[in-house]
Design goal:
heterodimer, A: mainly beta, 10-stranded antiparallel β-sheet, two-stranded antiparallel ribbon, B: mainly beta, 3-stranded mixed β-sheet
Chain lengths: 267, 254
């Protein structure tokens, strides 16, 4: 079977199925920490899927996106409500709520900016040194999870201690609608935990949030995440992602990971 | 011992004093003050168990008038090991600035050494101003240890010698928020032909900061779309403890 037909098969899969005003999660949206809940990557994809269809998204650049996971989102009918918290000519702030099983499970915010006048001369941009086509051998997620991951370098292999990973969302978010570049950026920002696999026998480390700070609009399907945790032994790790597309850097992102000894309850 | 303050609290309102003045218009409050006041308000939200900040996201795209200001906070989610609190600053009945704070309890967790900043201590560096209003000597002392005023990258130490609110000792977390707000002074991403107010300020903490001095190592990415992103690494005397980001909106000056 060729790579293309594999990809088409996966695309026939989807994270959610639309139902009325809401979305029903599929198996791809299952949390690795709790089987009866949705995973953070799926929540981020669904939030951004609805966000980029808002009129504000056509009028400006997304400068910041935050997602706060308030409680495990049950694998049940999910609805999303966005409201304009601050509207203006040059700046729009949207706040969103994700309601799953009748309860608010996550909150998001999105800051859009619409600059006027000529921009200052841009900074020089360099693409990541290894392309996704040159990183075929190793993955951090199994095939069939809806996300194609290409591991370039583990933290232990890198002189800077950073994990380097290409991510592409293969499955549709809902039937007929794949991830947008913004959705792919948020999805790639959910892979901080994959840089901590040496700890996975003793610890759980779900993330409480995802925050993405953009320096330009991302382009294309593939997102490169260069990832370094800051772990000072105080209950959490702050994950630092440098996000790039094939052209070069476009965002910085963070996750707060909450550590628990295995068999302890998640927060 | 500090001299003076950014605000005086009276009758449930914060009265901005001279250090709270914005550099661009002088009719508004500056981001250092606004960020400090919002962080302080979240810090004062009641906690069932001890927690520290993991993140704060401050929205300051609308200038806050230089007028008596009300601060209020609301707990969005109170978990056993995490709390999410939002805060607002109002002048009259109108909301001008907002923040969302994530606090977490400190449990056992693995630790790894993090690369040191390798920059001179503040005592070994010359006194240099980072902004035109918040000068070198008062209400904050600054020592630029990399770069200088310009597009960046740059780094500076900050110590406050005025109270945020008269008569109160501000926490190191509040002072860290205040210290990194002027980062565009050393990392604007553009020449002085552009103005570059920041619309927001977000901090991410791997531990609570401590001590007087805060180091901000700032660098700015902007790729010709009219906005920019400052990314800062934050340290105290013990080493690096977190990250900060600001969105800059460029406009031609003059």
């Amino acid at each position: 079977m060729s790579a293309d037909s594999t990809s088409e098969q996966v695309r026939a899969k989807r994270f959610y199925v639309a139902e009325g005003d809401g979305f029903v999660p599929t198996g791809l949206s299952t949390s690795p920490w709790r089987r009866d809940s949705q995973n953070g990557l799926a929540l981020g994809l669904l939030m951004t899927h609805t966000l980029v269809r808002r009129p504000e998204a056509a009028q400006g650049h997304l400068a910041r996106f935050t997602l706060d996971i308030l409680r495990p989102a049950p694998a049940a009918l999910t609805t999303i409500a966005w409201r304009v918290a601050r509207g203006g000519r040059r700046v729009q702030l949207l706040e969103g709520e994700l309601i799953a099983g009748g309860e608010v499970s996550a909150r998001a915010s999105a800051l859009f900016v619409a600059p006027t006048g000529p921009p200052p001369p841009p900074r020089e941009m360099h693409p990541p040194p290894v392309s996704p086509e040159d990183a075929l051998e190793r993955t951090v997620l199994a095939r069939g999870t809806g996300v194609d991951t290409r591991l370039v370098e583990r933290r232990t292999e890198s002189p800077t201690g950073r994990q380097s990973l290409w991510v592409r969302v293969e499955a549709d978010v809902v039937p007929g609608a794949g991830a947008t570049p913004i959705g792919a950026a948020v999805a790639a920002s959910d892979f901080g935990g994959s840089s901590l696999r040496d700890y996975s026998k003793e610890w759980t480390y779900p993330n409480l949030d995802i925050a993405v700070h953009f320096s330009r609009a991302p382009r294309g399907e593939w997102v490169h995440a260069s990832t370094l945790p800051m772990m000072l032994g105080r209950g959490t790790a702050v994950i630092d992602h440098h996000l790039s597309d094939r052209d070069g850097p476009f965002a910085r992102a963070h996750q707060t990971l909450f550590f628990g000894r295995i068999r302890e309850a998640a927060p | 011992m500090t001299a003076g303050a950014f605000y005086r609290a009276e009758d449930g309102l914060f009265h901005p004093l001279q250090p709270a003045t914005a550099p661009w218009t002088r009719k508004h409050q500056n981001g250092t003050s606004v960020g400090g006041l919002l962080t302080r308000e979240i810090e004062r939200a009641p906690l069932a168990a001890p927690m520290r900040f993991a993140r704060i996201t401050i929205e300051m795209s609308r200038a806050v008038p230089l007028a008596p200001t009300k601060a209020r906070a609301r707990v969005v989610r109170d978990g056993k090991r995490m709390q999410l609190v939002e805060a607002e600053l109002l002048v009259g009945d109108e909301v001008y600035a907002m923040a969302l704070g994530l606090r977490v309890s400190e449990g056992e967790a693995p630790a790894e050494p993090f690369a040191p900043h390798g920059l001179p201590d503040p005592d070994a560096a010359p006194r240099t101003p980072v902004t035109s209003v918040l000068g070198e000597g008062w209400p904050m002392q600054t020592r630029v240890v990399r770069g200088g005023r310009g597009p960046g990258p740059g780094a500076y130490w900050t110590r406050f010698n005025a109270d945020l609110v008269a008569g109160e000792t501000a926490s190191a977390t509040v002072r860290a928020v205040m210290a990194c707000d002027p980062a565009a002074g050393v990392a604007s991403g553009a020449s002085r032909d552009w103005s570059f107010p920041n619309l927001d300020l977000s901090l991410y903490f791997a531990r609570a900061p401590a001590g007087d001095w805060i180091l901000t190592e700032a660098d700015t990415d902007q790729f010709g779309e009219g906005f920019g992103l400052i990314s800062s690494l934050l340290s105290d005397a013990e080493g690096r403890f977190g990250h900060a980001h600001q969105t800059l909106l460029y406009a031609q000056a003059g």
